[in-house]
Structures are given as structure tokens and as C-alpha cells.
Model the fold of this input.
Amino acid sequence: MTILFVFIAFVTSVVVLIEIRERRRKKTVSTDATKKIQSPPADCCGAHLVCEKDTLLNSSTEIIYYNDEELDQYIGRESNTYDENEISQFSEVLFTLKENEVAGWLRSLQLREIELPQQLRDEALMIVREQRNKTA
Done:
């Protein structure tokens, strides 16, 4: 009878230890995956499928200004309502940015609810596309 009791206690202990180890492993994998999504490396190159640095759809809600605070006056404006002078303000910012800053600037405009003038959209997206191709 004692042999049966010792055997059952041993099997139960092994099962419990395996379960604990498996839970720890799952928690570590889950935590590592979350860290990768939430905080990409500072030197993110854009060569992988999801890069927080140059995507326009990243999860960051931090607004970064690119010496373009004056564009805040266009919050809520539709992209097809800008006159030539207003378009030139956007254009000046766009063409003074480094190529690797354009995606971040477009994301900043999105977060600030500022629509890029229709006339500059294709150019801005082309710059982002070219930058991604360079880093891939």
C-alpha cells in the first residue's frame, strides 16, 4: 500500500513540475513576442515584415513634430481643400526631411488629424516606398 502511495505522489509531482515548466515557457514566449511588437530595436532597419520605424500603421500614439508645428492649423481640413500657399507649406516640410523621416512625419500628421494635400500624397508615398526598398 505504501508503495502505491509513493508511486502516486511521485507521478503527481512529475505532472505538476511539467505543468509549471510549460506555463513558464508559454509566459516567456508570450512576453518576448509582446516586447518585439511594442518596442522595436532602436536600429530598426525596415528589412523585416513589420517595422515600427517606417510603417504608417504602427501602434505608437506618440506625436513627434518635425519642425512643422505651423501645420496644426490645418487639423480637420480635407486633403482637397488646400490652396497653393498652404500646399507649399506642406511641400517645404516634406522636401526638407531626410528620406528616412518621411514615414514618421506622415504618421505624425495622421495622429494630429492633419490630411496631407492630395497633390503631395503620391510623392510622399513614393519616398516611403523607395526608402523601404533601399533598406530591404
Q: What stands out?
A: Residues 29-41, 43-54 have pLDDT under 50 and may be disordered. The chain is about 55% helix and 0% strand. The helical segments are 2-38, 84-96, 102-111, 118-135. The chain has two domains: 1-39, 69-135.
